[in-house]
Sequence to fold (199 residues):
Amino acid sequence: MHPNPLFRSDDRQLFETLIDQIGFGMVFLTTPDGPRVAHTPLLSTGDGAVQFHLARGNALTRHLDGATALITLNGPDAYVSPRWYANRDTVPTWDYVALELEGRVRRMAHEGLEAFLHAAIAKHEARIEGEPWRAEESSEATWGGLFRGIAGFEMEVQAWRPTLKLSQKKSPEERARIADGQEAAGRPALAALIRSLGA
Fold:
């Protein structure tokens, strides 16, 4: 989390939206073999927990149950050029959105993992145009193979640490130029966040 309080928020609905829209993050844990990270799809339960799954052979899988871990999600980010400032006698920076979640992790039972997978599939299939794929299209052997290869986890989030660094220290006119510059550079999502969240 960025140390500047200007870049923080207490808006839990915003955090839930970030988890929903980004949907992918990194789980960090210090293991007996040293620090490790795993990349995984994420699904919020809506009541303060986040679910995810890892391959059974992942370096974190055997250490997560009962541990306190850290999950990070990275939203839109981009370089900010001084050409967009009123005074060019300055330095570049980087605008970004990130969310850190810290909490206790528990391993899910088979039923919880299955529910998580069906919910994640339904969510992501609904975002793709056309006839959605359904889990029932997998054979029993294929679906069973998936379950033999993965483990499901749920983190009860005890700390939410967001960073919304969106050029808040700049004037409204400069922020408008920065947003326009990001949009012209092909980063409309970051431009929209600068216009809406950083004001």
The first strand starts at residue 24 and ends at 31. Residues 5-169 form a domain with the Pnp Oxidase; Chain A fold (CATH 2.30.110.10). Strands lie at 24-31, 34-44, 49-55, 68-80, 93-107, 150-165.
